[in-house]
Amino acid sequence: MNIGDVARRSGLPPKTIRYYEDIGLVSPLRSGNGYRSFRESDLHKLAFLGRARSLGFTIDDCRTLLKLYEDDGRASADVKKIASDHLTRIDAKVEELLAMRRTLSHLVHECAGDNRPDCPILDDLAASASVDGPVEKSVHR
Amino acid sequence: MNIGDVARRSGLPPKTIRYYEDIGLVSPLRSGNGYRSFRESDLHKLAFLGRARSLGFTIDDCRTLLKLYEDDGRASADVKKIASDHLTRIDAKVEELLAMRRTLSHLVHECAGDNRPDCPILDDLAASASVDGPVEKSVHR
DNA sequence: CATAAGGGTTCCCCTGACTGGAAGGTCAAG
DNA sequence: CTTGACCTTCCAGTCAGGGGAACCCTTATG
Q1: Residue in B74, B97, B117 closest to A93 by CB
Q2: Cβ separation of A76 and B119 shorter than 8 Å?
Q3: For residue B25, is it within any domain?
Q4: CB B100 within 8 A of CB A90
Q5: Is B47 within 8 Å of chain A by CB?
Q6: Where are the alpha helices (DSSP H) in chain A?
Q7: Out of A112, A113, A129, B65, which could bridge B47 as a Cys pair, Cβ 3.0 to 4.6 Å?
């Protein structure tokens, strides 16, 4: 299979597949004309990677997951740990976004959104942007 | 004020402040020794930027918000639009993360996490990674 | 006076995970 | 012969800074 076929069947862009080869995630063969020649097993790996990436795993996680996948003697605990840690990261990110969301949503509701200049959103940005007050240490100017 | 003072009072790292100057968000004066010399108004801008960034606005949004902030003839509608659009982006991101979270959380609960190799997580990655079936067009190998 | 500490400066490279584009080789069809 | 669809490599850019080198300025201390 050429890269285009693999791209269609895996759903990954050719650029991404080349990139994955670059960083050593797949190692397709080469045909006489220099084209990459993918085996079914390469396609399978790429699809695995695509799925893992779509669940938000980092490339580094993917590399480890792929190794574990290919290791018949793996302990599922190792896989579970990677996934749990990732879940924790996701939760943290969601919390962060929801905190922003709360503030923003409040401000947006307060703002008239007309052609007048008065704007609680800008007020908040400017005010909460209150500065710590004059500096005391390092008094040299 | 030197950059260190401004960093302390605005909560932004000196590196970030220099970067903001680089991309034209602030324009501090220079003292005779070549040091940046920040006015209170620069500090204010930087604090504004820090607050906007902490709410997740992109640098580009920040640039626009800053312009609007300094424009007495602004329409609050313009500000509101930026904030609303950002809110929409946040919601989309949260949804995306929650979708990942649902799948991952399910898989993690299914996985024994012991020293045996059987692992529903890997099974899912490998299986959902099912390929589209043989390619029909572009049949040249 | 020398020097050390603790500011500051510019400059360049690095990050993650790709994406875009240029310049050029290969292959089958019309 | 040429067109068009593939493929190749390589370089540069993205976003928002962070790390670190090499060097300058100022003040305090021995």
Answers
A1: B97
A2: yes
A3: yes
A4: yes
A5: yes
A6: 3-10, 14-22, 40-54, 59-70, 76-110, 120-127
A7: A129
> What single letter denotes the amino acid at residue B36?
R
Do B39 and B11 sit in the same domain of this protein?
Answer: yes
Instruction: Give me the residue from B76, B84, B94 closest to A118, CB to CB.
Output: B76
How far, in whole angstroms, is CA B50 from its chain's centroid? 12
Residues B51, B103 within the same domain: no
Question: Residue B21: which domain range?
Answer: 1-57
Say whether B36 sits in a helix, a strand or coil: strand
Q: Does the nearest atom of strand D lie within 7 Å of B19's Cβ?
A: yes
Provide the residue-wise pLDDT of chain A in tens; the chain has 141 residues. Answer: 999 999 999 999 999 999 999 999 999 999 999 999 999 999 999 999 999 999 999 999 999 999 999 999 999 999 999 999 999 999 999 999 999 999 999 999 999 999 999 999 999 999 865 565 544 333 332
Counted domains in chain A: 2
Q: Mark whether A5 and A51 lie in a shared domain.
A: yes
CA distances from residue A98 to B55, B67, B89, B134 in whole angstroms, order as listed:
10, 27, 12, 43
The token pair that represents A138 in the structure block: 């390092």
Query: Does A86 map to a domain?
Result: yes
Please tell me whether residues A52 and A3 are part of one structural domain.
yes
B72 touching chain A per CB within 8 A: yes
**Residue A67 within any structural domain of the chain:** no
How far apart are alpha carbons A121 and A109 in whole angstroms?
Answer: 10
Q: Are strands B29-30 and B36-37 parallel, antiparallel or unpaired?
A: antiparallel
pLDDT tens-digit series, residues B81-124:
999 999 999 999 999 999 999 999 999 999 999 999 999 999 99
